[in-house]
Specification:
There is one protein chain. This protein is 41% helix and 15% strand. The chain contains 15 helices and 13 strands. The chain has a seven-stranded mixed sheet with strand order 2-8-7-6-5-3-4, sandwiched between helices. It has a four-stranded antiparallel sheet with strand order 9-10-13-12. The protein has a two-stranded parallel ribbon with strand order 1-11. Strand 9 and strand 10 form a beta hairpin. The protein is globular.
Length: 391
């Protein structure tokens, strides 16, 4: 057998792909179709005007088919810098923005610029599994940080995890998988901790467009020296339904951007041009449409919270953005429950064990429900099936 990279071999297989394998050999009758709540991604294509703009670019713009700048198309970098400066009441320059192949690549680039084998990164648990997988692959130790009330981590608890090998703290808000929206004071406390201990604060705001709160979720960009601490990540996938085009962004200091450029050039050279053109067009033309998307997701969130409150024994720990993180009432571990729900109720969701340290008892007690993939009728059907489920 050919040799395997031990760090890569040691991490787990992609959870969403694992859940899809559970579907093998199963069929679902027309009167009770599958309710797939496993993956956090829009199930509809981008709106037609955006598709037309991308199609026109493909037909009429030669540069849409060529290599572009490693750090992204200038017009998209400028749009992000301008809009983020306004939204966060700070100063962000285009040279502090890089466009990546999705937010996962933005995370990988950020971590690659920060840490190497034997170093440590603090992740709140439950965590986004791809973050944990990348750290595993790089030989970087994950230091799990337990979340407290309403699934919000505490900076004082994180301080106890810092060692001489610590390089960064990673936060996701609104959170995947819990949906929790971290208060501005929480993010400020983590930024101050990071600054005091010479760490980076990597803040993934993939779901910022679906935050239920009005206004900026934090004021970290208002600090004139934010680049000494903060690395911000974003994805255009959810806002403009561009999942298949893989367009994300990382915002960091110019010095760090020079390191990130090395990674991006080696891994992909550049993000796809048509996706970047689409993202820039969406930012310029779809503000009202995106507001409607946000209103719809918030309505689904309300329907989810209301429905779960009526289910005997279930306990919602977090609900927001695309997700509900819930404690189930059954005397079985979450992986067994997830597969039985699929076979017996036609519901596909992910067990909490996919988001927690191996062997963690809390993982076995929880599930993640990606409710944004279902409309309100679908959420009502979900509640009926969960209520009727009798293992």
């Amino acid at each position: 057998m050919l040799p395997l990279n031990p760090a890569l071999a040691a991490t787990f297989r992609p959870p969403v792909m694992e859940a899809r394998r559970w579907l093998a050999g199963l069929t679902f009758p027309p009167e009770r179709p599958l309710i797939n709540l496993s993956q956090a991604a829009p199930v509809e294509p981008p709106p037609e005007p955006l598709r037309r703009a991308m199609a026109e670019a493909a037909l009429e713009r030669a540069d849409a088919h060529l290599y572009g700048p490693v750090l992204g198309r200038p017009e998209l970098r400028e749009a992000v810098a301008r809009d983020w400066s306004r939204a966060y009441a700070g100063t962000i320059r285009p040279e502090e923005v890089a466009i990546t192949q999705g937010c996962n690549q933005a995370f990988c680039a950020a971590i690659q610029s920060l840490a190497g084998p034997g170093d440590e990164v603090i992740l709140p648990a439950p965590w986004y599994f791809n973050h944990k997988m990348w750290l595993d692959m790089q030989g970087i130790r994950t230091a799990p940080l337990r979340c407290g009330a309403e699934m919000v981590p505490d900076a004082a608890e994180a301080a106890r995890l810092v060692t001489e090998r610590s390089r960064a703290i990673v936060l996701v808000s609104p959170n995947n998988p819990s949906g929790a929206e971290y208060p501005a004071e929480t993010l400020r406390a983590f930024a101050e901790l990071a600054r005091s201990r010479s760490l980076a604060l990597v803040l993934d705001e993939t779901y910022r467009d679906f935050d239920a709160r009005e206004g900026a979720p934090h004021d970290l960009f208002a600090d004139p020296d934010w680049g000494e601490v903060l690395i911000h990540l974003y994805s255009f996938s959810k806002a403009y339904r561009l999942t298949g085009h893989r367009v994300g962004a990382v915002i960091a200091s110019p010095a760090r951007m020079a390191e990130i450029e090395k990674f991006l050039d080696t891994v992909a050279i550049c993000a796809g041009q048509i996706g970047q053109i689409g993202a820039a067009w969406g930012m310029a033309n779809l503000r009202d449409w995106l507001a409607g998307e946000r209103a719809e997701i918030l309505a689904r969130r309300a329907a989810m919270a209301e429905g779960m409150a009526q289910l005997p024994g279930w306990r919602v720990k977090g609900c927001g953005a695309y997700f509900t993180w819930a404690e189930h009432p059954f005397d079985m571990p979450a992986p067994d429950l997830a597969q039985r729900l699929l076979r017996e109720a036609g519901v596909l969701l992910l067990p909490g064990t996919m988001f927690m340290p191996e062997g963690d008892a809390q993982g076995a007690r929880h599930v993640r429900i990606a409710f944004a993939n279902a409309d309100r009728d679908g959420i009502a059907a979900l509640m009926q099936r969960l209520e009727a489920f009798r293992p």
